[in-house]
Amino acid sequence: MTPYIFLCIVMAAAGLEAQHLTKEQKDKTLQYTAKCIKQTGVKPELVVEAKKGNFENDEALKKFTLCFFQKAGIIGSDGKLNVDAALAKLPQGVDKKAVGKVLEDCRKKTGKDAADTAFEVYKCYYKATPVHVV
């Protein structure tokens, strides 16, 4: 895969079209996405599809999810969501009270390991909210 194609896929996976994000948040999202794709070996196409709500049951995708959210500082090494940290990272214009309720519900999701737990939390959040930063 050429570096240009890889960069395009990473940008799509990072969700840089998210209009609520600041430039700094977009830059960090791109950086974390690129690092976690490289670290986990996930196919970038799976990340793009997950951002659209198409969640493949793929171990590398689960590891990517854990990696990304750990780098963002919202999930611990055990895969458990830190609701306060997640709320603090939300962009301007997002109803934090409504999202907080969703996060409280989603933090109860568990999986067979930390990556699976992070993936279940992400799927729960995605399905319950209209604003998807990642």
TrEMBL record:
UniProt main location, coarse: secreted
Gene Ontology MF, one: odorant binding
Entry-linked InterPro entries: PBP/GOBP (IPR006170), PBP_GOBP_sf (IPR036728)
Signal peptide: 1-18
Keyword entries, A-Z: Secreted, Signal
Subcellular location: Secreted
Any one biological process term the GO annotation gives: sensory perception of smell
Coiled-coil segments on the chain, per record: none
A cellular component term, taken from the record's GO annotations: extracellular space
Keyword match Plastid: no
Family affiliation: Belongs to the PBP/GOBP family.
Stated name of the protein: Odorant binding protein 5
Origin species: Carposina sasakii
